[in-house]
Amino acid sequence: MIKGLYTAGSGMMLQMARQDVVANNLANVNTSGFKKNVAIAKAFPEMLMSRLGEVKEDASGHKVNVPIEVIGPLGTGAAVSGIYTDFDNNNIKQTENPSDLAIVKEGYFVVQTPEGQRFTRSGEFKINSEKLLTDNSGYPVLDVNDAPIEVDGELVVDGEGNININGESVTKLKIVNFTNLQNLERLGDTLVNSDETPVEVEKPEILQGYIEQSNVNAVKEMVTLITVVRAYESLQKVVQAEEELNDVAINQVGSTS
C-alpha cells in the first residue's frame, strides 16, 4: 500500500512542475520573442507483479515463495525528464515602427549588458536619449563590430541587417546563432545566454517595422492547465484512498483487541 503513496506523490510533483511551466508560458503570452517551454515526463521502471504460491525448498535447501501466476506490470511513478523550448517563430506582427525589427528565421540579436553580451529574439527596440538603439531593458543593441548603434536621423534596415541612417550605410546588425539551442540559459523573459561560442549569421533575414510575437497559444495553454489540475486532483484522491487503507490496516486488521 505504501507503494501507492510514492507513486501518487511522484505524479503530483510532476503535475506541479508542469503547472509552473504552463503558468510561465501564460504570463509571457504577450512578451515579444518569447519561446514557450514544454515539460516532458518520464516513467520510473515498472515492477512485474506475480502471485506467490506455497513456500518450497530450492535445490540448495533455501525456502522460497514460488510464483504461480503473473499478475502484470505495476507502474512506480513518473517525473520530469526535462523542460524543452519550442523555437517555432512563425508569428510575425507588423507595427510600422522603424525601430521594431524581426528575425524571420534563425538567429539572435546581441545586446550589451553589465554582465557581458547577451542574446534576444525580441526586436522591440527603442532609441534612447543618447540616440542609441536599445532593447526594452535599456541595453544597447550591438553591430558586427560589437559597438552600440547610434541612430541620429531616419533609420532604415534592409533584409540582411544593413543599417542606413539618412540614406547613408553606417553599419550592420550583429546576428548570431547557436548549435544547441536547448542549452540556452534563460535570463528573464527575453534574454538568453550560453556557454557555447555564438556563430555569426552571414545572411540573416530581417524585417523592419515588424516584431516577433510570443509563440504561446493561450487557449492551448489553458487546456493544458485544466488537464494538469484535474490530474493533480485525481492523484490527491489516490493518496487519500491509500491513507484510508493504511488506517484500516493499522487500526482494524492489525488490532489485537
CA-CA gap between termini: 23 Å
Structure summary, number of beta strands:
19
Count of structural domains: 2
The value of Rg in angstroms is 28 Å
Structural class: alpha+beta
| Average predicted confidence as pLDDT | 88
Number of helices, counting only DSSP H or I runs of 4 residues or more = 2
In percent terms, what proportion of residues is strand?
Answer: 25-35%
The biggest beta sheet reads: 6 strands, antiparallel
Proportion of helical residues: 10-25%
Low-confidence stretches: none
Q: Given the C-alpha coordinates, what overall shape results?
A: elongated
Order of neighbouring strands in the sheet with most strands: 15-16-8-7-14-17
The SSE string, one letter per element, is: HEEEEEEEEEEEEEEEEEEEH
Quick overview of this protein structure:
The protein is of the alpha+beta class and 257 residues long.
Give an overview of the whole structure:
With 257 residues, the protein is α+β, with helices and mostly antiparallel strands. Helices cover 24% and strands 34% of the residues. The longest helix has 36 residues, at 218-253. The chain has two domains: 2-85 and 217-253, no CATH class; 92-212, no CATH class. The strands form seven sheets. A six-stranded antiparallel sheet has the order 15-16-8-7-14-17, with no helix packed on it. Strands 11-12-13 form a three-stranded antiparallel sheet, with no helix packed on it. A two-stranded antiparallel sheet has the order 1-4. The model has no long low-confidence stretch (mean pLDDT 88). The chain starts with a helix and ends with a helix. It contains two helices and 19 strands.
